[in-house]
Amino acid sequence: MDRNTTILRASPLLAQERISAVVFDLDGVLVDSFAVMQEAFAAAYAEVVGDGEAPFEEYRKHLGRYFPDIMRIMGLPLEMEEPFVRESYRLAGRVQLFDGVRELLSDLSALGVRMAVATGKSGPRARSLLDGLGVLRHFEHVIGSDEVPRAKPAPDIVFRALDLLGTPAQRAVMIGDATTDLAAARGAGVAAVAATWGEAEVDLLLAENPDAVVNAPGEVLALVAASS
After folding, report:
1. Active site residues
2. What are the C-alpha distances in Å from 161 to residues 23, 80, 120, 153, 225?
3. Shortest CA distance to 64 belongs to which of 179, 163, 188?
4. Of 188, 177, 171, which is closest to residue 210 (Cα–Cα)?
């Protein structure tokens, strides 16, 4: 795929109505947290499991899911959550917004587009991170996986965002960098948009036939504007 080209598929979801709300995933879409995540995971593994290399490559295959769910899938102790969260908070100052995200959020706000975050993180940790980066004010709601009955890939968190925003599914899009994000969007009847500028495995995303692919944050603005 030419990563300089936005792929807009002939999606009936994107063709229905003007986009008035955008639901974002957090890690890999708004913030570049991959290195911090890897360090926190390694520290938690060493503390709880002990010697040996932390299986981060397997962990990353499940990104987008809630941390305890990943531990269950991988057969790792749930006790890893406490040190993982502790280290994530300690290292939070190293997490940065991706280039262009701050401008994108300002531009969408200026257009009156309503925004929410639906993340695999816990709600308090996500809100703390966005607040520290100075962009929490752009989001009407930031919803964590601990705040819905079922985490992604179930659609609960997207349904919750739509309900809180008061926006019908046909007027919203979900921007995510993992197949779990796309599945959650689809389950909620929302256009599923794949973001490729982070650590996303692009081939896996394309195999899910997203409704659109955006290769830079500014392309989200173009996607919204094209629906007007």
Report:
1. 25, 27
2. 7, 29, 14, 15, 21
3. 179
4. 177
Average pLDDT, the chain: 92
- 10 Å Cβ neighbour count for 171? 18
pLDDT reading at 3 higher than 50: no
SS3 track for the chain: CCCCCCEECCCHHHHHCCCCEEEECCECCCEECHHHHHHHHHHHHHHHCCCCCCCHHHHHCCECECHHHHHHHHCCCHHHHHHHHHHHHHCHHHCEECCCHHHHHHHHHHCCCEEEEECCCCHHHHHHHHHHCCCHHHCCEEECHHHCCCCCCCCHHHHHHHHHHCCCHHHEEEEECCHHHHHHHHHCCCEEEEECCCCCCHHHHHHCCCCEEECCHHHHHHHHHHCC
Instruction: Give residue 14's pLDDT.
Output: 67
**Which phi and psi angles does 82 have, rounded to 5°?**
-60, -50
- Tokens 């490559």: give the residue: 57
Q: How far is CA 27 from CA 15, 23, 64, 137, in A?
A: 28, 13, 8, 18
User: CA-to-CA distance for 29 and 200, rounded, in angstroms?
Assistant: 9
pLDDT digits (tens, 9 = 90+) for 121-150: 999 999 999 999 999 999 999 999 999 999
Share of the chain above pLDDT 70, in %: 93
Residue 179 token pair: 């197949």
Task: Over range 198-223, report the average pLDDT.
Answer: 91
Query: What's the one-letter identity of residue 80?
Result: M
